[in-house]
Amino acid sequence: MVIMVYGGGWRSGNRTMHWPMAQKLAAKGYVVVTAEYRLSTEAIYPAGVNDIKSAIKYMRANANTYHGNAAKVAIWGYSAGGQLAALVGTTNNSALYKGDGCNDNYPAAVQAIIDVDGVLAFIHPESGEGDDSKKTSAATYWFGASKAARPDLWQQASALNHVDKQTPPILFINSSVNRMHAGRNDMIKKLDSLHIYHEIHAFSDAPHTFIMFEPWFTPALNYEADFLKKIFKP
Fold first, then answer.
1. pTM greater than the 0.90 cutoff
2. CB of 115 within 8 A of CB of 85?
3. Which of 213, 161, 165 has its CA nearest to residue 191?
4. Which domains does the chain have, with CATH numbers?
5. Do the beta carbons of residue 233 and residue 29 sit within 8 Å?
6. Average pLDDT estimate for 16-30
């Protein structure tokens, strides 16, 4: 099963954005769900993280209904959704995010992560998140506090800070916009030290929105399908 998380700066977007990708992955034999989560206009961090955890529990609880495999769950996310996917996947066994209290007898752990242009670290030399000098940034709205006021929250929501031996394999698919994968290279160093499988596929000269358009959509789809086949071994 694949849980897909859309992007939009934690402030906009909806789960229909990636239906084309979901349909193409489903055509390759996967049960794919595009999950909804509360945006910063509805509830601040960590509400959205808990919503995604709850979606995973729900799908695991209803795996038989949807003809999915509860033992093989991947999370896919783009942009803000990529950040969420990486955070959810690196906190598999953490008590930080517990969901909404439903289906709590089912785990929210995932067995693979696909991060499409999602930041891995908010407070990092490569990160452009949290610049409120001209206007309130999307991340500041999401956290409900600036980076200077609550650095602890910004660090807590950075997947880079949660990598451990329980972290599942991860696929990074990136545009040429470097700030959109802030912390990726440092995460790779951690993954290498723990012997955790990972792949990187970057498209030169691709805009941040590359995942929605050709000539990048189909190659990205193939990278995802090959990665999932490798990890889940049909």
1. yes
2. yes
3. 165
4. 2-232 (3.40.50.1820)
5. no
6. 96
For 49-65, the pLDDT digits (tens) are 999 999 999 999 999 99
62 Cβ contact list (under 8 Å, min separation 6):
none
3-state secondary structure of 220: helix
> Please, are residues 111 and 75 in contact by the beta-carbon 8 Å criterion?
no
* Residue linked to tokens 């990890």: 231
Alpha-helical runs (H) found in 40-116: 47-61, 80-90
What is the token pair recorded at 51?
A: 């919503």
Cα separation, 1 vs 8, in Å, equals 23
Q: How far apart are CA 229 and CA 233, in angstroms?
A: 5
* Cα→Cα distances 213→38, 153, 204, Å: 26, 34, 14
pLDDT in tens, 122-148: 999 999 888 888 899 999 999 999 999
Q: What is the C-alpha separation between 218 and 124, in angstroms, rounded?
A: 31
